[in-house]
Amino acid sequence: MTFLIAAAGTGGHVFPGLAVGEALVDMGVPRDEVIFVGGDRIESTIYPAAGFPFLGLELRGLQRSMTTRNLGLPRVMWRARDLVVSTIRQRRIKAALGMGGYVTVPTAMAARKCGISFLVAEQNAGAGLANRVTSRWARRTFTSFPTTHGLETGEWVGNPVRRALATFDRAGLREESLARYRLDPATPVLGVFGGSLGAGALNAAASDLSATWEGPPLQILHLTGTGNLPAVEAPSRAVIWRQMEFEERMDLFYAATDLVVARSGGGVAELTATGTPSILVPGDFGSSGHQAANAEFLRAAGAATVLSQEHIGELPDHVRELLFNPEKLASMAEAARRIAKPEAAMTIAAAMLEVSD
Q: Whole-model pTM above 0.90?
């Protein structure tokens, strides 16, 4: 019994999709019978590296300004749909899942043409255009937040996280994680990341904080995004600054950190699953203002504070207020765990099995 998962573009789509694929394998589906669909970005290496078959499509997104680039989209979309149709028929695929983004549309169209079950999983509090369109064809629709704008009839199951995060044990991983990054166990650790592709504003803010910090000693564990290691002056003598472009072992990243500065895409599910307090800096990109809505959900629950990008110069003040306040961090961590749904990947995988019968 073979399944199809469409998830592409950024880690916010790719890693939740990968989590569902791993859950299907855990439920007895052979790994070579879970086929991923995507384009030529990080998914083209992530899925094959995890041992899954990968179907690459030519994709490009709708430009929101008036441009001749949009004129070729129907041709690209139909060609992608036909390739997915061919794969569904050749591999006798029983059910398909769309995780949002451009790749979801041709996958949904192909599933509909072939008469197989199609499901949608949305990562954000404001549904993206692809999921809003294709959910009308879906047997079931899953959301990561209790109220997701644009998918009001969706089932709140949470955003899938990989097994290592769903079963996260901070205390059990702490010693290994500190050794991995060469960090001092007695000094608080601030984690910084902007997603798999990085975030220029966060990278610059981490660099400035490192160089100008005036306060108690701290350590910064900074994931810059591929190709974004910044060239900066030496950090303040009160700061230990560790940088990596990308971290496959995010369980160790979270185990090492006491507070995280991050964007607020679908990856906030990792913050809640791991009980990690956060300072969220929503990006203003996307079609639905989803990052601001995601951040507000965590803020209202007491799991995060929110800092707008236009006020990112105030980051040192927020770090000073939170990172050295163990009681506040403990309260935020508990709030994050209360809203976590680490079983989301298993729930969605079980639904795929159910509709394929």
A: no
What torsion, rounded to 10 degrees, do the Cα atoms 224, 228, 230, 236 define?
Answer: 0
Positions in the chain short of pLDDT 50: 62-72
Look up residue 33 and give its two tokens.
């019978």
Contact present, 35 and 17 (Cβ < 8 Å): no
Structure tokens at 133: 């369109």
Same domain, 223 and 249: yes
**Spatial separation of the C-alpha atoms in residues 144 and 266, rounded to whole Å:** 8
HEC string of 189-211 equals EEEEECCCCCCHHHHHHHHHHHH
Q: What's the CA gap between 11 and 28, in Å, rounded?
A: 25
Considering the domain architecture, whether residues 68 and 193 belong to the same structural domain is answered as: no
Nearest to 259 by CA among 158, 180, 329, 155: 329
Reference 131, options 120, 142, 123; nearest CA is 120
- Do 44 and 121 lie in one domain? The reply is yes
Q: Among residues 96, 126, 139, 102, which one has the least CA distance to residue 13?
A: 102
What's the DSSP call for residue 69? G
**pLDDT at residue 260 in the model:** 98
